[in-house]
Design goal:
- By secondary structure, the chain is an alpha/beta fold.
- It contains 15 helices and ten strands.
- Strands 1-2-3-5-7-10 form a six-stranded mixed beta sheet, with helices on both faces. It has a four-stranded mixed beta sheet with strand order 4-6-8-9.
- The mean pLDDT is 96.
Amino acid sequence: MTDEILTHVEHGVGRITLNRPKALHALNRGMCEAMLAALLAWREDDRVRSVIIDHAGERGFCAGGDIRMLAESGATDGVDARAFFYAEYRLNHLLFEYPKPVTAIIDGIVMGGGVGISLPAKVRIATERTTFAMPETGIGLFPDVGGGWFLPRLPEPELGTWLALTGARLKGRDTVSAGIATHYVESADLPGVKAALLRGDASVLDGLATEGATIMPELGALVPLFGHDTVEAIFAALEADGRDWPMAQLAILRTRSPQSMKVSLRQLRTGASLPSFADNMAMEYALAGRIVATHDFQEGVRAVIVDKDNAPRWSPAELTGVTDEQVEGFFAPLPPGEEWTPVF
């Protein structure tokens, strides 16, 4: 076990606490493997009836994964990056299929890897401090950790497409409206709720809000604007609309990696039709191992994480430079023996 993950059992509840606050609890391979080990042990332990995932401190639930390591590995042989994704995606899938109730307390930033360990949970409790986003197209990546499964299945049609392509953020009660969180509580009341859950008293959930406010007035525009199967068609629909909100979305998209947007849209459209979460994770594992070696991911990490100039130079710089054949190559099956497989 690592001290970046704290695990213990009390009153029949297995508790996993993310404990890497200086990095906003960003996941590394050791953390994923520690969580896997705890969940596998509790799965067979009749004394453990449910699981809670929370975090130390107040700054955020989990801001993602070890992006710098992924870039460094992708620039060489990619072995460490693939090992991380293999463990992380096994963790995501185990949580999704877990036979005991899992509650994720997403009080704070929930991005990237944090999405992967919270959205599979049956209960997801947000507060006014919750900020959800999948900003991967801004660093040349794609919304992995199950994004291909969850985002197309949000209750509002094409909400997931908008979130995936733009990296837009949802806050507080909006995450409940969007289907990201299942419950909402003010952070001042969270300690009492958490204490009750750790006593095994799930009835405390009955007193929490399960509805949020309208996410945004533009919800009705998502299907005509983002309900297309090519990024070029989405750009054209936004430009043809011409109103302030669509033009603001277009301006955001023009700063994102063209390659990542095309891969992400294909990922969501494919994920929407896959028969199982395991199939989705296998698809994303093939994508992840390939995309970390690309120019755009290396450049995105340089611009956002390393040099922090926020001025990535994408290549190709335009959508027309990313061919269908190139996108198809990212989704090609892996060679036998190199595929991702679930724990069970």
